[in-house]
Amino acid sequence: MAQWVPFMITVSYMVIAVWLGFGAGKGRNMNKVEEWGVAGRSLGPLVMYLLVGAGGISAYTFMGAPGWAYSKGVPVLYVVVYLTFMGITAWYLGPKVWDLGVKYNHVTQGAAITHRYESPALGALASFVTSIGVLAYAVLQTTGSAYILNVMSHGKIPVWLGVILSLAVISIYLFKSGLRAIGITNAFQGALMFVVSWAFGLWAVKQFTGGYSFAPVFERVREDAPQFLTLPGNLGDMGFAFWTTSILISMVSVWQTHWIQWMGANTKKSIRTAATMLPTYYIVCIPMLVVGFIGIFVYPSLAQADTVAIQMAMDSMPVVIAGLLGAGTLAAAMSSSEPCIHGTALSYSKDIIQPIFKISDEKAGKMTRWLIFPIMGLIVAPISIMQPASLVYILLIGYGFIGQAFPALVGMFFWPRATKQGAFWGLAAGFVVTLAFSVWFPHPLGIHAGIWGLFVNLPIFFIVSLLTEPVSKKTVEDFFPDMVDELYEEVPETTTKPASI
Amino acid sequence: MKATFKTPKTYKGWIGLFAILTIVLLGSWPVIPLLNHETIVFGMPILMTWSVILIFLTTGILMLLNKMGVND
């Protein structure tokens, strides 16, 4: 009986998530895009903090990150640093994005791009290509959910069934309550992950060292395997250049999901407060990394590094802790995949289907929430079950696009002279370079492929923009109201009169 | 139309920009090599301790910038 306790705890988590998420939309008209899509712009700073924080913590934190600590050592800390710095991006851009959204009724990144560059085609293209990375990420998280259900059920729930179960659970509350459900379930998931990570980490330390201090763990690592404590790490693949450029590209990659989450805030101040506190949430990563370091000694030859935490939980932890880890990992996976599915449905509806078929806001609102079913049933579920070898390439391609959209955002917030042609050709060239340097010639000179992409993207963006017609004065006024006088200032012509004889 | 970039308009804005660039540098190339030792500080490898410090430093700086009214 005791062997089923972890499974029961994991299933209990799913039931609570459905209950919370289903109730979140009570009394609201979810056929309106503003309600289903951005929660009627009603989320306060605490929910925003947990919404964005938990969204940033994926199954990677509970499986991949301890796996990296186990196989590479301190290079994994770049994750903690980039998550922290994403707080700065949210702090700076979030309030600006929210302001524009309220003023011009944007709910998606694509809508803002359409407006800024006066090009529905560019908005639709941005929506579609960024959705590739977002959906690939949802697939990875769904695979993680299925894996956890498989392990916790001692193999009784096969992967295909795990995929269907986890997506079915998400679909119930996502359809019913939209971003409100994501907000409330992420708040619950965020709190659960925090508790589980520390409970599991401290338990592992106690078991390994007899106390609660991390010091004996790292003293042992320093004695036996000091290469784990410095860059480039045990596998020698994280130099200073790769560390720095991986952080920078992550910092400038603004995901569609983040954009939509910012739109859900009730005020600008709520986003600013949540973003200010956001880095503190990522303390959640630290105990799980310590677990990975402990694994170096407990499992000297584990075949799959990513399984180190789960393996330790199932082998030596009390059933309740193992169950909490299962629930925490499932929470991490679900809290990351549900915003991706929600954001893609919203973006496809508002940025692609509505402009192409010229349907009304009312019809688009009704259709948006139904789109989660084809997205889950025709894209996320089959790919999660088949797990094609090309998934990693799809992911790289998708991430490549998200990072290469950065110049388009520069044009939105910092450079009024940017044009749609500049944004398009920069994005296209940057994407090709990122793809080549991700797949065929990985990260030349130890510099992240995405940064190589930006090296090419940014000059093309600037040059092509300067060679093409700027957007109308009206649009410039919308995005840069305080710069209009300066930008359109008449330059007095200096005419040289011929000298009279 | 001029091709001007939007830059901070006040000294507070410039302080904000400088503070943010400083935090980013503290977590990247120029500073990380200086901390790349096997030293253990507060029970953790120095890079891990530094990552935790960066978390609180970032939040602290952002709180300060909020108080100054930067990015309002």
UniProtKB/TrEMBL annotation, chain A:
One of its GO terms (biological process) is sodium ion transport. It is found in: Cell membrane. InterPro entries: Na/Glc_symporter_sf, Na/solute_symporter, Sodium:Solute_Symporter. CDD domains: SLC5sbd (cd10322). It catalyses: L-proline(in) + Na(+)(in) = L-proline(out) + Na(+)(out). Its main location: membrane. GO terms for cellular component: plasma membrane. It is a multi-pass membrane protein. Keywords: Cell membrane, Ion transport, Membrane, Sodium, Sodium transport, Symport, Transmembrane, Transmembrane helix, Transport. The chain crosses the membrane at residues 6-25, 46-70, 76-94, 121-139, 159-175, 187-205, 240-260, 281-302, 308-333, 367-385, 391-415, 422-441, 447-467. The keyword Membrane applies. One of its GO terms (molecular function) is symporter activity. The keyword Isomerase does not apply. Belongs to the sodium:solute symporter (SSF) (TC 2.A.21) family. PANTHER family: SODIUM/PROLINE SYMPORTER-RELATED, SODIUM_PROLINE SYMPORTER. This is Sodium:solute symporter. The lineage of its organism: Bacteria, Bacillati, Bacillota, Bacilli, Bacillales.
From TrEMBL, chain B:
Keywords: Membrane, Transmembrane, Transmembrane helix. This is Permease. The lineage of its organism: Bacteria, Bacillati, Bacillota, Bacilli, Bacillales. The chain crosses the membrane at residues 12-32, 44-65.
